[in-house]
Amino acid sequence: MQANVSRVSKNTGIMLLATACLLLGGLGACGSDAPKRDQDDVELLHGTTPQDASAGRIGNYKPSGRLIADTGFRPPADGFAFENYGITDATHDLTPAAVEQLFGKEVCASGSGVSCELIPPARAWMEEENDAMRAGHCFGMALSASRFYGRQLYPEGFGGQSPAQLALTGNAPLQRTIAQGSALQELPSIRHKALAGTPNEILDHMVAGMTARKPLYVLGLFRADGGGGHAVTPYAVEDRGDGRFAVLVYDNNYPGITRAVSFDRHANAWKFVAQSNPGDPQQIYAGQHHESNLALYPGVTPRGTVPCPFCNGANRSKSEKGAQQYNEIALEGDATNHAHVVITDARGRTTGYVNGKVVNEIPGAEVMRRLNNKTWKEDAEPVYYVPANRPVSVLVDGRSLRRPVVERLEFIGPGDRVAIEGIALRRGEHIRANFAGDGSSVSLRTDPAHDESPLLRVGIEDAPDSYDFALKAKRLTGGSKLNVRLDKPNYQFDIDTHGVKKAATYDVRFGRYDLAFERMTPTGTMTFRHPNLLLPAGTIAKLDYKAFSDKHRTLDLELEHNGHRTIEKLRG
User: Fold this and answer.
1) CA 274 to chain centre
2) pTM over the 0.70 mark
């Protein structure tokens, strides 16, 4: 399993194979007389003079064979002197200004640059990306190294004469650029340009690209089980003889040294060791034939802004009009200990983890593994993309947890965002969420054995104003079902507690909710907060928010309970 990427076409594969075989000394080098080998026969390439880094201990690889392709890139001078990193107090990732720089002013409900107030789906996307980068920035570092070498970026603008001279700490422009690069991997306009194929096809493509002096690729590597995504920068290919090759790479987990990905043409397979203990199977990255576990990304980025996949119809880029739109579903939390996601559509087809393996039965759905990891131990949940406007049910399954977690489930679509925050799970527990295809509603069913205190969000991008609603339950009895819905035509936020179970014991928190929302206008943002709202089980509440403004802060809340209707005035 790997990121959703484009297959190398048959004709392209034949052309690349011929090119690579000619470089090896004739088409006979790839002929039928070649010895047969399998993945177990692929060599693991180790270096000498091991060095330590947070990812482990590894050596510097020194090629001894002929380089059949060489771009001239060298890690000591052209790579970064700092290693792949997560998020620390000294680093900063995406900001509203950085998101605006990527997509354009459409993502700002008001303001621009440092004063940009992001529309709800853009803010959710930024928060999700920043959370994901806690596991590392390898794709952003690999892409940035390629862009510096291709002179799409200039180190002089970041404080040095070469990438190796650039400091990370205190260098906000560089931190932002790397973060933007990391986030690009998830955009349809970028990920759909990535190439997939057999190891031989990917090797041929790299050799042909290097020989033609194309911009350096970014190579995505995954373990044999499809996990542990890591990105490196390939820059040369060594012929080791007898159909064996070493792709020399800049591995941003280990600055300043050369590493090598081992390819075996006769086995149509590859291997890579994450650090110096190949006896640990979790450190071995590998693939063969059509289960290649490889993805090859062009090392160039579009000039100017990129199409915005979560903006509504009025704000979509011209290049995205007519293209398939998606609802993005992501579970954010601990990259080494997390629940798994199973998505089910209206016809019972599933995408996600089923019996320990990723399946994808929903037509048009995509599964993407992020390329972030700063250590081989990290293996975050994939990001799932389901065609927009299809309702889905999402199971967050905690059977594989090793210890309790608190996670967030995000649903981001064109012009909308829905989220469930504060999902507390212990091993064996689960929650289920049902999302409307247009992002207007969510219902949460909690685990029967566990009381929860979740926060449900529903936000929309609208014209001229956008809205972002949040409802936090002080305490929900295990097995409860809580529904919220944004009735856009009637400007109502609906809360349905008919599925909320009554508590077996008295607790003042049961039936209490904190309600808040933001109204984002072109001139600024107004906030309404009403804490400790009492909504007994079996109640339908409808908040009329159309009239809200700084001058009108009292809103009508219609309550229906046991056949009786009342109007409550809420002051925010």
Assistant:
1) 21
2) yes
